[in-house]
Design a protein that fits this description.
The protein is built from 4 helices and no strands. By secondary structure, it is mainly α.
């Protein structure tokens, strides 16, 4: 039994396609977050947000996104940042308490 993330797994399967199978998948969690200084002009923050969230639709967007460690697109947390961070904290605490 082993653990792998969804980005490395296809590479591993390609090497041994008949020897591996998925027994359990975890929920999706963000790999990267974008953080801005709260002192920035709100209009600038919105412009940055719009630019990043629209990269996947731009002609050179795929190349730029690739530079972000294989990021396919930027998006917002469906239930909001507070809920997402609370869930990430719960998962972290679970892992820490099993040691």
């Amino acid at each position: 039994v082993g653990v792998n993330d969804n980005q490395v797994y296809p590479e591993v399967v390609a090497e041994s396609p008949t020897e591996l199978r998925i027994v359990l998948e975890t929920e999706d969690v963000p790999r990267q977050l974008v953080v801005v200084n709260g002192a920035l002009d709100p209009a600038l923050i919105e412009a940055i947000k719009a630019l990043l969230m629209g990269l996947d639709e731009q002609p050179n967007g795929a190349a730029i996104l690739e530079a972000f460690d294989e990021t396919a697109q930027f998006d917002e947390f469906p239930e909001g940042i507070d809920a997402a961070l609370a869930r990430m904290q719960e998962l972290y605490d679970t892992v820490q308490n099993r040691g």
